[in-house]
Structures are given as C-alpha cells and as structure tokens.
Design brief:
Elements lengths: L3 E5 L5 H12 L5 E5 L7 H6 L7 E4 L2 E4 L1 H11 L8 H16 L2 H6 L15 H21 L11 H16 L5 H12 L1 H11 L8 H4 L3
Parallel strand pairs: 1-2
Antiparallel strand pairs: 1-3, 3-4
Helix pairs in contact: 1-3, 1-7, 4-7, 7-8
This protein binds glutathione.
C-alpha cells in the first residue's frame, strides 16, 4: 500500500486542509491525491475512501479517516504537535474536538473559499453565535499561551483544526476582536497555510464550483 493522503479541492475543502496540515506538520512522506469536489457527494471520493469523504490517509499499513483521527495519528509520530504539558494538552484536545463536532452554522453559512472575499455576508444568528464561541475559546487559549498560536510559539494541531475557520474569516470578514485579528494574521502567515493558499490558487479553473463563486 503506497503512503498517500487523499484530499479534495484545496480552495474549498476545509476538512482536507486540517488533515493536510497535520500530515505536513508531522513531515510524513506521502503522495498527495487531490480529487476535485462537486459540492455534494462525489463518486470519485466514495471510491477512493472507506467512508466516502476526504481527508483519508494511508501510511505504513495504517488506514486513517476523520480529520481528528489523522491529527492523533500524526501526533503519535510527532508528539510535539500537541502541547507537552498534560493540562494544556487536554485543553488543546478539547478545543480541537469542539471544532470537529460543532460550529455547523458557521460552516454552512460561511463556506470556505480561499479565492474569494464576501465581506459582510453569511451573518446569520447561528453563524454569529458560533463566532462568539470561537473568539472566546481563542482568547482564552491565547491569553494563557501569549500566542502567536493557540498554545504558544509553535503552530500545532489545535491551530490546524481552526485554520479553515481563519480562511472563512478572511473570506467573509465578520467583525472580530483585535486578539482574533492578530491570530488570523499569524495563521495566514504560517508557511504551510501560505502554501495551501498558493496551491489552491493554482488549481484548474474547471474545478471551480459555481455556487461557491457567486455568493456575494
Ligand atoms: N468529519 C469528517 C468530515 C469530512 C468531510 O465532510 N469532507 C467533505 C469535504 S470538506 C467531503 O468529503 N464531502 C464529500 C464530497 O465532497 O464528495 C472529517 O473530520 O474528516
């Protein structure tokens, strides 16, 4: 079984971004397979992965799906991706799990599109409620760690789980606190996030999905 990471269109696939960041942070040597998404259930994704979704990782005989499971697998090989302190590690895992399990209103109303800006759009009661919670948990973590990342100087798995939220904030531009704005800028400037944006911008125009490109 070759080592490979199956992901979707970088411009749109927020869960893929999380898995990809974890795999790149852990420096796993994997072939990257990018499947163009269709904005619903994609036959090619169904055929390529056990659960019909991306991201999906095959590495040294292990098969791993679900972005959070991919994060945990990467942390087995690169333990420094979680904080070394037990209590901080528990905190990081809690907010990563909260992301994995929730914030549906934000995800539905402010979809990821690394190539567009829709300032002021997507502001529903539910998405704004999700943003309040996200800003609260970012502020708590950043106050304790002193930043620039959620658990200190290094970009870790909690940051990987929230990186697609950062892209949504850059696209939809909700009003944010100065603390959140600084965190958004730090994440956007991280070399792996910059690389993701560059690779997304280089994807074929045939991969564009009209409904995500005309949301202004
Ligand atoms: N809970 C999953 C969610 C994965 C997910 O929803 N992926 C989307 C793309 S972002 C997907 O594969 N959708 C099916 C498709 O587009 O064909 C995870 O954490 O990995």
């Amino acid at each position: 079984m070759p080592n490979r990471l199956v992901i979707g269109t970088k411009r749109y696939s927020s869960w893929s971004m999380r898995g990809w960041l974890a795999v790149r942070l852990a420096k796993l040597d994997v072939e990257e397979v990018v499947i163009p998404l269709a904005g619903g259930s994609t036959q090619a994704v169904k055929e390529a992965t056990p659960h019909g979704m991306v991201p999906y990782l095959e590495h040294e005989g292990a098969r791993i799906w679900e972005s959070l499971a991919i994060c945990e697998y990467c942390a087995e090989l690169a333990p420094n991706l979680w904080p070394s302190d037990r209590a901080q590690r528990a905190h990081a895992r809690s907010i990563a799990s909260e992301m994995h399990a929730g914030f549906r209103e934000l995800r539905v109303n402010m979809p990821m599109n690394t190539g567009r800006e829709y300032p002021g759009g997507g502001r529903t009661e539910g998405s704004l409620r999700d943003i309040v919670r996200i800003e609260t948990l970012w502020a708590e973590a950043l106050a304790a760690s002193r930043g620039p990342f959620l658990f200190g100087r290094d970009f870790g798995l909690a940051d990987a789980m929230y990186a697609p939220v950062v892209t949504r904030f850059l696209t939809w531009q909700p009003k944010l606190s100065a603390i959140s704005e600084a965190y958004v800028a730090a994440v956007r400037a991280h070399p792996l996030v910059a690389r993701w944006y560059d690779e997304a911008a280089a994807e074929p125009t045939e991969w564009l999905i009209e409904k995500y490109e005309t949301m202004a």
